[in-house]
Amino acid sequence: MRRTRRLAAAAALVVASLLMTGCGRSDESAAGPAEATALGSGKASGTVTLWAMGTEGELLPEFVKTFEQENPGVDVEVTAIPWDAAHNKFQTAIAGGQTPDMAMMGSTWMTDFGSAFATVPTDLDTSGFFPGAVQSTQVNGRAAGVPWYVDTRVLYYRTDLAAAAGWTKPPATWDELHQMASDMKSKAGAEWGIRMPAGNDSYQGSLWMPLSNGATLTDGSKWTLDTPQQVEAYEYYNSFFTDKLSNPDTDISPGAAEADFVSGATPMFIEGPFMRSQLAKLGGEGFDQKYASAVLPTKVSSTSFSGGANLVVFDQSKNKDAAWRLVQWLSDPKTQVSWYQTSTDLPASQQAWQDPSLSGDANLAVFGEQLKTAVAPPANPTWTQVAAAGDTELEKIRRGQESVQDGLKALQQQADAIGLG
């Protein structure tokens, strides 16, 4: 469903590289603009320059024509930027004082450039957005952006194979997920019960387990990655490998997860909404009747993580008023429904999910339910470095090269050295 996801993953690697070489930030540790003013009513006028990445950058020029029609005195100039070039382009623009008026900003990039963003007007209400999405807009205690679209991860499972294994409903608890994976293999003939996160982005992809076990990633002053809750969560993760329900050598090349799901070799995985279109394309007509999605199984809670993109206005903008009015328009529930129908980006506005185009699709509605408890990744500029270190330790754990306790201890030591930024 998310056609930009693979590009976004590549971009995340670029971010990590930049941060590790010390050139990923300008002055992001500064508090940034602190004063917020009211936007008030009125029409937008003048020129608004907007940068957007990937598919969004391709679709926005036509989409914002409606805004221009509603505000005859405004002209919106959209510049589409490749994901893999965007981080460097933003960094250069900020350093040179040549930013656009506003931009689409990946939620994990907010702290990288936060001091360059204007503070959200006091009367631009975000109370109706998913809490995790709003959380991702906070930089140093201030609202530095407005949620635009959201992403989270849920359980996908083959209903036909589940029925063959004796399951007529999705697993509700961690124990049930483990048992269902076992039954998928022993009773339904699957090669593996479930695909567990592996390769790049595996640590972030596994966060639903510690988060659902009551763990936190920081205590505000340091990383907390080897607590008892974390250890218990990753012992659970590792149990799928030690019990031979997940493949430690799983193919992590693009399209492999979808192929194994469609063939039935691995009838469960935990992924984002973009998988829906991928499965429809690979599985063909009628395949949507062979699988379903469900909220993540509960331990202490059922908590996934919230991703997506926000809308920001740069403090150097020459037309803040019109830029914020465009942000306000793009944030309106009706506009968000229209944007979903255009792009398939999931709305950040909870009210938008009441529209039949979203609420009428049971598998899609699951994402809306999961987003109610989803948590944004830590708003720290060093998060990408810590997550990359987590990928390395998880690989050692799933391959049996180190214990869970040793792996998390090593991760904590690396995180302590990296710091919170």
From TrEMBL:
InterPro entries: SBP. GO terms for cellular component: ATP-binding cassette (ABC) transporter complex, substrate-binding subunit-containing. Gene3D superfamilies: Periplasmic binding protein-like II. It comes from the Bacteria. GO terms for molecular function: maltose binding. Transmembrane segments: none annotated. Keywords: Signal, Transport. Residues 1-26 form the signal peptide. Belongs to the bacterial solute-binding protein 1 family. This is Carbohydrate ABC transporter substrate-binding protein (CUT1 family). It comes from Quadrisphaera granulorum.
